[in-house]
Amino acid sequence: MAHAKVVRRSMSFVDFSRHVIEGVRECILLGRAPTSDWRVRHAQYEKDGSYTFDEDWRPIGPGENWGRPDGCALFVGRAEVPAAFAGRAVSLHWPIAAEVILSVDGRLHDGVDPNRSLVPLLEEAAGDERLELSCEAYVRSKPDDERALATSALRGCVQRFNLPELVTVDEESRRAHLELLVLHEAISSPALGEDLRAFLEIRLQEALRLLPPFESSPGNIRAAIPEVRRYLAEEVYAGEASPFRGSGKLALVAHSHLDIAYFWRVHQTVQKNARTCLIQLRLMDRHPGFRYAHTQAQTYETLKQHYPALFEEVRARIAEGRWEIVGAPYVEPDCNMISAESLVRQCLYGRRFFEREFGVEVDNCWLPDVFGNSPIMPQVLKGCGVDYFVSNKMSTWNDTNRFPHNNFMWRGLDGTEIAACVPPVHFITWNDPGQLVESWEAFIDKDACDESLHMYGFGDGGSGATDEMLERLPLVEKLPGMPRCRLTTGREYLHRAFANPEGLARWDGELYLEMHRGTLTSKAVLKRENRRAEFRALETEALAAVAAARCGARYPREELEAAWKKLLVNQFHDILPGSNTAPVTCDALETYARAREEFESLAAAAREALGHAGGGGGERAGGRYRAFNALGFARSGVAELPADAAGAALQEECVAAAPGQAHCRPVGFVSEAPALGFAGLAGEDSLPGGELSVAEDRLENSCLSLELNSSGELVSVLDKRTARQVLAAGATGNQLQLFEDRPGNYNAWDILSSFEDHRHPIPPAESIDVVERGPLSVAVRVERPLGAGRIVQVIRLRRASARVDFETWVDWREREKLLKVAFPLAVHAPVYTTDTSAGGYLRPNNRNTSWEQARFEVCCHKWVDLSEGHYGVALLNDCKYGCDVKGNVLRLSLLRGPIRPDPTSDEGQHRFTYSLLPHAGDWREGRVSEQALDLNAPMRAWFAGAGCSEARGANLEISSPALHLQSLKCAEDDSGDLVLRLAELHGSRGTARIRLVPGLEWKSVRRTDMLERSLTDGQLAGGEVEADYRPYEIVTLRFAR
Amino acid sequence: MTAEAASIRDYVHEVLRPMVQVDGGDVVFEGLEQRRVKLVFRGDCSRCVATGCGLVPWIAGMIEKRFGERFKIEPRMDRPYFYR
Q: In this structure, which of A260, A525, A652, A681 has its CB flanked by the most CB atoms within 10 Å?
């Protein structure tokens, strides 16, 4: 028998009542008087906070277009309060799909935006006031948080001008509207039980029957409103008298998520932040119980610089305890891809700013929106005095598994535990009864906690709480079936909820977000710049610290901090992940370039202080080239020389570059560069042994013998040391795989699990040429078409090295494609390891359960390794972060071509290098970390002049190979102490002897936390300190003279 | 392409396009035919209610200001599949 689904097409009560309530809303504005004399002036808001005007002031009237993309508009106008308004409160009514900072008579007054059309102006008008209105307005064409229907139809980068009005408000109508609206939201929400909804629906019907017929005049509606309100108070908002009891408790924290850049540029966020702060300050004036939580030291810095009066108001509210600083990091950074030391600096500079400016120690990490969290975080956060972690993302965005906890202890790679709160619902809410019920219903840890954290306020582009959100709370308190809600601060909630953590569940390891996997790869250029900047920062600091310790050179702490902050801003969770528009990326690249210049100039000054500066032309004949080894272990290998130093080179290396633009870089060889030390170049006679040989289809050195096919793929990788074939039988390595990659709306963010369904063939190589023939390396250059673009690889094998480098240049023209490189290996292992930057993280190599299946793309830093028994293979990279391992196949994600939010994302030229490293033993014995560090921090030599100092050996000696240099710097307190941070990478335990800048007399060595505060005294003996370490521990030592 | 078309193309691509891209939109010059400038709108511009009545007249005004002539703009929306 045929079955037909019954579809209800007639208008439901829920639908119709919405229109009736809208009629009540139209009664809110009582008296209306137009403002006048509006003039507009469009401008470009510049990075320094100034305006470049497009035009002079010109009059603008209702219905005329205003606005422009990537710009702002200043408005001025007049308002004359009519005599009829005397004795009444007067507001400005301005429905606008823009973000406006409103000043009255030259003073910052309040904010207007799509969620705030009504701004209180005068508490009690005299009736003859004349007000000068001025506005700083930005169009918002991408307001994620816009809920008001009235303004969503107006939006766009060019909009129609609506004339602002002075209005008086009928308080009875306004209150009645909100009471009806909240009741309507309650009956519309499936989060409320069916019985309760039926109970409330009957009462809404009854209340609406008290109104005159639909579309009656406002006067008639207003006349009925007292009766409606009386009914609602007795029958709906009756509190304890209701037969329906609510359950649960919510701690409400007002918050406004503010992306430092996204569909707007970093400098435009200055205004977004100021508007947000202004709005929240005015709410505090009007609502004495209101408290608000605001993140990111960077936004406070810009407020101080550009809106000092607002900053002082914020300072006063902080002192009062009503404005809460949440989040220790400098910005809300991506927490997959940034290095351990970057996370330290995020917290160090963020916390120091808050302590210096406000005397506040922020003890939480508030990251509502970041795309997953590395297992190194608990240790780094705790080391930075951060005891609580908050992020909503895993609970609300996972696409496969429901994250099983909300309040729990998060255990990191090294075993450190931090109190973690993953609130059960989104961070943008507005105290809708359905949201509040859902928040408590979704809270999983009811057995251990009696209250859940609930953030409210609009966000993404700032904005925050509204009057209406606050006025909903007394209603919600009396509405049947609601959880008990209280306004509090993030700090108060976290301290209370985690006061007894014994009963809480533990989550061990990465907080993986089952979404946004593409952000590990999108906008590859930002990933490359981030990796380089991180290494450049560490090298510069180490040089400057050694120069300060050895030569008494001034340590440029402030300049280093300024350069670091440029890098830290670009780590924001919509910049580094690539989920931003094209101009945001352009700005980020400019910022990276400025940071590079600053670091390089500081490094050059430090080298000069150390006597390794470049000499003048006259000294050239007797001069020499020197290289600095920025790593914490001695190494030998190739050092790149300046382009004009061909005469000093042993060889030229072929640079992977565009066809026709191929060029070479001169390189020399360093026999042994001591840790953090200088070394000269070796002659050809001191090169390590072993022959090199090369042909178009073959490369060989003392370690490996490689065979290539006509596509530049490896058909054989023979490890001569173990007589072992590295590749799986019949499979090729260096397989470039081009997949269809169409994740829809979240284009830059996501890779779908079905990405392998459609693979596009890549034609074979058009040319393979031998381009290096020793004495340092052999290499072939492979050129292949890649869709409408091209890929050039220089496949290089260096003398006596088992590392095969694939130096790659790509002209990338693909849209919505994912390029991976695959290496099917003769290795079988149930687990694989990914680098976290501070230790290897073991991951299951199976797709048994939905949890493993969801991790089909994971984060790695410099390497990923698959090792069995006594042998393994690592895939290293110099700027990639996304990888996957499927059985015996290691894959690295190289490029994507998303079309939203930037339709041109990643188009153009890319450079990167990945390396295959077969090794005996596991990744530790195979020295995978050391090779990956060497790939990422290649030695560069410079002409040091004739008068340069002789090499003085290592500036750092560490007896344990498991402990690696993470950073060396001078202390933040300008004491001149040196701060040495080491990371245990192998997961081992022991005691290491450490010697820093041998020859210097150290008075004391202390272990400190990552904020450089003393923990314990260390024992110095003969200039050495002994330090115990545990698996994956990050050890910070402070040396004083 | 005529020199005039090339100038308009360069102006659209070098000056106007980066501005439009801030909001997640995009505009690409397709041609100049019979005093009509053909533009393709991509990204968020392709679905924005304000493109036709707001952005297009603004671009026409900017081109007029730059070249001293009011060209008719012929917009084409290249809407990605997830906006269709």
A: A260
Q: Give residue A623's pLDDT.
A: 61
> Total structural domains in chain B?
1
| Nearest-Cα residue of chain B relative to residue A265 | B22
What's the CA gap between A1027 and A936, in Å, rounded?
A: 27
**Chain A residue numbers touching B50 (CB-CB < 8 A):** 141, 155-159
Q: Is the minimum CB–CB distance between A496 and chain B shorter than 8 Å? A: no
pLDDT at B7: 98
Is A156–B20 a contact, with Cβ atoms under 8 angstroms apart? no
End-to-end CA distance of chain B: 32
Chain A CB within 8 Å of residue B61 CB: no
Long-range Cβ pairs for the range B25-32 (8 Å, 24+): B25/A69, B25/A141, B25/A157, B25/B51, B25/B55, B26/A903, B26/A904, B27/B59, B30/B76, B31/B1, B31/B5, B32/B1, B32/B2, B32/B4, B32/B5, B32/B8, B32/B71
According to DSSP, residue B74 is labeled E
CB contact under 8 A, B26 and A744: no
Contact A156, B48 (CB under 8 A): yes
Segment B44-62 shows an average pLDDT of: 94
Amino acid at residue number A576: L
B1 CA to chain A: closest CA distance, Å?
23
Mean pLDDT for A300-315 is 98
Biggest CA pair distance of chain A: 102
pLDDT average, residue stretch A153-175: 94
Q: What is the mean pLDDT of residues A984-989?
A: 97
Tens-digit pLDDT profile for residues A871-891: 999 999 999 999 999 999 999
Whole-angstrom distance, CA of residue A573 vs CA of residue A331: 9
**Cβ A88 vs Cβ A168: under 8 Å:** yes
Percentage with pLDDT > 70 across chain A: 97
Burial of A127 (0-12, 13-18, 19+ CB in 10 A): middle
Whether the CB of A574 is below 8 Å from some CB of chain B: the reply is no
A141 has a pLDDT exceeding 80: no
| Window B:10-29, CB contacts with A under 8 Å | 16, 18-26
What digits encode the pLDDT tens for the residues A528-561?
A: 999 999 999 999 999 999 999 999 999 999 999 9
Owning domain of residue B49: 3-83
CA A457 to chain centre: 21
Among the listed residues A589, A568, A576, the one whose alpha carbon sits nearest the alpha carbon of residue A297:
A568
Peptide bond into A775 cis (omega under 30): yes
CB contact under 8 A, B26 and A904: yes
CB contact under 8 A, A155 and B42: no
* Interface contact flag, B21 A583, Cβ < 8 Å: yes
Minimal C-alpha gap between A1014 and chain B (Å): 47
- Chain B: closest CA distance from residue A144 (Å): 12
Residues 6+ apart with CB under 8 A from A161: A38, A40, A60, A61, A62, A63, A64, A65, A66
With CB atoms and an 8 Å threshold, state whether A70 touches B18. yes
The CATH number assigned to the domain holding B79 equals: 3.30.300.130
Say if the Cβ atoms of A158 and B58 lie within 8 Å.
yes
Which of A314-318, A644-648, A897-901, B32-36 comes out lowest in average pLDDT? A644-648
Neighbours of A721 (CB within 10 A): 13
C-beta atoms of B22 and A69 within 8 A: yes
**CB contact (8 A) between residue B50 and residue A900:** no
Choose between A945 and A465: higher pLDDT: A465
CA distance B5 to chain A (A): 23
Residues 6+ apart with CB under 8 A from B4: B32
* A:B CB pairs within 8 Å: 100
